[in-house]
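Recall from the previous lesson that a structure prediction takes nothing but the amino acid sequence as input. Here we apply that procedure to D-galactarolactone cycloisomerase from Natrinema salaciae. The sequence below is the only information supplied.
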Amino acid sequence: MEITDIQTIPLAHSVPEGQGLGDARGFGTDRGTTLVRLETDDGTVGWGEAFAPGPIATATVEELFADAVVGMDPFAVESLAETAYTDPYHFGGDVFVQSAVSAIDVACWDIIGKSVGRPVHRLLGGTHCEELTPYASTMYFTEVDRPIDEPIREAVAAGFSAAKIKIGSGLEADVERVRTAREILGDDADLMVDMNGNYRPHQALRSARAIAEYDVAWIEEPVPPENESGYRELREKVDVPIAAGEAHYGRFAFKRLIDDRAVDIVQPNLGRCGGLSEARLIAGMASTENVAVRPHVWNSAVGMAAAIQFAASVSNYPHTRHVPEPMLLEFDRSENPLRSELLETPFDPSGGTIDVPQEPGLGIEIDRDALERYRAD
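The prediction returns the following tokens.
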């Protein structure tokens, strides 16, 4: 079997003017990503996602990877990430290179799964897994004035038993947002917060101590991703677990986080971290240091499918049934038709669980009409 064709498909969606939403750093109005479609000589098709803007992702794939991928045996997928670190030399850790690698890698795993008739999570070494626990990624900062309790109430009404909210705009606002979310979610729900790297260490420390009484499960990106000393400083002073990884790319960046014990939880994004091959390696490194793995998901439906398959494969080490800690999967609650409309059967988190596809590969079918509707090339 060999790959005979590679295509990049940029996708984009914009929300109406004045309806932007985001985090403490600012608002966003555009959603965009890039799909990669691979086809083999026997007609098998695989899909992956480069979580990067279309023009940049397309140019990166065409300039650095297309010639090598056409003619490649998809079963040689795990050599792809290693090659990216050495050829092109010096560019391997770049976010756009890793995004391109991610898309091609995931598409290869999709093909492999279809070829052998197994879902990807079983190929990655996972046991049989039928469902995961989704958490609502919500309570964004919005351009339009909106009661801060409204998004959490909507998430609870939809069946979510866990949520992650945006904070990072100041101590008083942080406390108000966390207190509101906890009151609505109830005492037994998992509540996470995301500062999106908007603080210096001393600011993040003050906020972490102020919200600790509300039983926060983790604090995500309390300082900028490049501030590695800040992560180490906070982890020594804060009792709440620290999480990061959405802005880290490839095994070497994650190795530093894990080896330095800078975080308690790593969060690879399957559209940027190097794909399923790198994510599996990252999970293995994390396991050896007893660091938890929870994928970051703000992707299209293809990236979400990859994250679900990966999450279903991650070991629960060192837990036994006596220490229940479900694999929490991020589910963005903002408007995103690139996630909600792109599949023949969209992912449904209602009721507090999300199904892990058991069909071969990623277990998804692309809705061709939706694909054409949101194409940006």
